[in-house]
């Protein structure tokens, strides 16, 4: 029997070429907001701010020229998918769009680890959206290339939380000292859970305003409490709006209510109108992860405090920063 | 209450950089053929001709490098979608392909204005295909970036009409003095309606050949008549074919007839065969917006007068011209 | 009647610009493994090896900058589609992704020749996946631009066979002198049929191991026999594994068996586990076209002889080589 002579290489064919290998997130996965502390958050936000400046000046530039993103969406999310696509393209990179997973052989019984190991043969970084919690961690366990979690079920959606925080920083200049009020469905909204966790890294005050059946889950409240961040729950917005610096609105879905009458009773209390905004500070911002379906009246859109469309732009810069960081080019 | 200090900027982050801001279509939407007069049509066609020359010489070039097109298709149209994608790519730009709208959160209740305002956060120009008439105008009303209508229901499909006219100009050298015969379903074909409107800007003669139940609508005929353009209706092609310079064929769909026998009676009269072409001028062109399903026999394809595949190429150049124009690079 | 003056040009607008017009595959279609002899196989593999070296060094490069691939998939195949997309992007080219054919007007009655002639108006090369045998040849007959067959039903999937052979060459240094054992469903697997055909160009020994109802078809065996290549059939792996240099595993699908009990009896005999690998040579490789659904235990993945994920990478290099070759840039 012949002595085994190993093939030329076992590892990635894409040897790093000019990558900053000592950069904080080089080669890392972005799976959870729990990976972030104040220091590396500031690093990402500084890079995101540079991205903003560059996009304002030149639109696009070739920082990631020649790099390829596999944009792997097991469930459709036009907003997130488009945002990552644009982020890669504005950095001069290319995208493999994979949106048809439901019809594909990939979905016909192939395991997520196999799919991911196939795609990393072609690409330099993988963005994954998947309906099952823990999918991103599973993918990252098997992948040699960086995996960015673009939402895994009721699990995490870390890039959303990062862009929310970046929006606050850019719009209001700083995060310390702010009062952030979260409104709507605080029970099922993974967006507000992740954002609340991230905000505990700063010196903020949190208010939760929701119908009784959609209150912030006790385990999140306990987690926040353990950090010493002051928090308080309300059922109405009136009491806290005048002192609010950031009003973060989420959708109250009819399907969450077993009793339709109960829904009818509360729904209007959680719709933001020009009248609502009259009670708000002059210098504050109104945020929403979008899509909205009536939670904020379109009449509010022209209010300079309405930051939800600018929030989408900040999402672009945040994702540009993350892609550049994990690929060693930040 | 603190004095309100506005965020750094309210408007688009993509400041024009080297754009020709005084160019005729810079920053404009392309919504309807009604926007065009003879002068700005000639401007677009001159640019389209330059595009043709450049593509023939070098295939692609970097006029729109760094620019991003959001290709937003609410209904599938492989031909139009591919044409805009290729146009952007041959100009060195990038594309965000959005074809899965039906499954996406975008379609789950989000309004078109919100979707468009999200996408313009990522892209520089939006191409929109939508099944509802007026969608493109609605999108353009809310968007700060240029919107190009790629068909909105039975409304308009202006880039199709422009490429049809450009095809005539390129193939026959000029439009003035030509006799254009439209054949087939003239009632429901938005293509022929738009083309007829555009042709009134030139000195042409229009013939309409159709089954009785698929005649050109009276309101279009009235509109054309008001411009002084001579027009005439026929049920058979024989009378007008010998004097026709452009024969524009559209599909007669069986579904339009309530009586199947009526369909059987007329359908063969509207199929172009080599025999038909024997009665046509030596110097004329045969056009079709495609897809064809039997209206033109495949045996005609090798006839040099069969211009329908070249028409697709002219579509590429026309869309390159429009993208360059609205982005200030024409 | 006016003398006919032909339009400016009848042919492709994309005049070759700096193309190596005397290169072996310039402007050619890639339809079948039957096009290949040992000489032009070696040419493609030498180019593929150069691609591997370049990707290792620089990731991507601009060999096909400005060229456009129409990636036309009438049935979904994420793996093949992504592989061609990445191949084009790593060469600096662009892609028109066309995955939604089922919903599109393209599928509503338009003939394949018309679709292909439309797409070649936009693109420089067409990759076609289609469920019907002979589709690629039909498309190539009408297209003026190169067509690459990415699988047409139970017909051919030549790029898969080429990448399989390239994998063997790269992993084991040469093909001559090897014993190649094919395992599993050898009746319906077009992959093993094409690979067996290609291997007859080399000095190899072929073993076929399968359940009785999934044996290699007699016509393939006859075809191989005519080349003088030694071959032998088995129902169990034990006898041939110790002398095997390449073990090529394919999936045994339950649906192929009319009697479920028969399936239950044989299925475990065709699953590769660490125990199986203990009987294999130290220097050999285990291949699989993927997706796998249990035919190879995940515990085998870390065995250095498990080559199936590297096989995906070799697929990328092979497709880069083919694209460069047909576009005259190899």
What's the topology here?
The structure is a homotrimer of 330-residue chains.
Chain A: H1 38-58, E1 68-73, H2 78-90, E2 94-98, H3 112-119, E3 125-130, H4 135-142, E4 147-152, H5 158-172, E5 179-183, H6 190-199, E6 205-209, H7 218-225, E7 231-234, E8 246-249, H8 260-267, H9 274-278, E9 285-287, H10 308-326
Parallel strand pairs in A: 1-2, 1-3, 3-4, 5-6, 5-8, 6-7, 8-9
Helix pairs in contact in A: 1-10, 2-10, 3-4, 5-6, 5-10
The ordered string of helix (H) and strand (E) elements of chain A is HEHEHEHEHEHEHEEHHEH
Poorly predicted parts of chain A: 1-18
Task: Report on the biggest sheet of chain A.
Answer: 5 strands, parallel
Number of domains of chain A: 2
The Cα radius of gyration of chain A reads 21 Å
Terminal CA distance of chain A: 50 Å
Please identify the structural class of chain A as seen in this structure: alpha/beta
CATH superfamily of the largest domain in chain A: Aspartate/ornithine carbamoyltransferase
Largest interface: B-C, 43 and 44 residues
CATH topology of the largest domain in chain A: Rossmann fold
With strands numbered from the N-terminus, the spatial order across the biggest sheet of chain A is: 7-6-5-8-9
Per CATH, the architecture of the largest domain in chain A is: 3-Layer(aba) Sandwich
Mean pLDDT of chain A: 90
Count all strands of chain A and give the number: 9
Helix share of residues of chain A? 25-40%
CATH class of the largest domain in chain A: Alpha Beta
Please report which band the strand proportion of chain A falls in: under 5%, 5-15%, 15-25%, 25-35%, 35-45% or over 45%. Answer: 5-15%
Number of helical segments of chain A? 10
Oligomeric category = homotrimer
């Amino acid at each position: 029997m012949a002595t085994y002579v190993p093939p030329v290489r076992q590892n990635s064919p894409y040897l790093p070429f000019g990558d900053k290998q000592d950069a904080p997130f080089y080669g890392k996965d972005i799976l959870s907001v729990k990976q972030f502390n104040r220091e590396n958050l500031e690093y990402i936000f500084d890079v995101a701010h540079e991205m903003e400046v560059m996009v304002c000046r030149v639109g696009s530039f070739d920082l990631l020229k020649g790099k390829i993103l596999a944009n792997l969406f097991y469930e459709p999310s036009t907003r997130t998918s488009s945002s990552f696509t644009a982020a890669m393209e504005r950095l001069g990179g290319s995208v493999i769009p994979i949106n048809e997973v439901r019809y594909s052989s990939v979905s016909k019984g192939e395991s997520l680890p196999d799919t991911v190991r196939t795609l990393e043969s072609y690409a330099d970084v993988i963005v994954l959206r998947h309906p099952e919690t823990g999918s991103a961690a599973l993918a990252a366990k098997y992948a040699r290339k960086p995996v960015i979690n673009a939402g895994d079920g009721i699990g995490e959606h870390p890039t959303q939380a990062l862009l929310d925080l970046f929006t606050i920083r850019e719009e209001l200049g700083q995060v310390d000292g702010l009062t952030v009020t979260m409104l709507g469905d605080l029970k099922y909204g993974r967006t507000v859970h992740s954002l609340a966790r991230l905000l505990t890294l700063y010196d903020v005050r949190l208010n939760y305003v929701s119908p009784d059946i959609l209150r912030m889950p006790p385990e999140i409240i306990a987690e926040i409490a353990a950090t010493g961040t002051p928090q308080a729950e309300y059922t109405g917005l009136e009491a806290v709006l005048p002192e609010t610096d950031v009003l973060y609105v989420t959708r109250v879905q009819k399907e969450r209510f077993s009793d339709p009458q109960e829904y009818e009773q509360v729904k209007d209390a959680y719709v933001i109108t020009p009248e609502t905004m009259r009670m708000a500070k002059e210098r504050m911002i109104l945020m929403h992860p979008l899509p909205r379906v009536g939670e904020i009246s379109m009449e509010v859109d022209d209010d300079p405090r309405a930051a939800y469309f600018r929030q989408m732009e900040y999402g672009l810069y945040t994702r540009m920063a993350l892609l550049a960081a994990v690929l060693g080019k930040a």
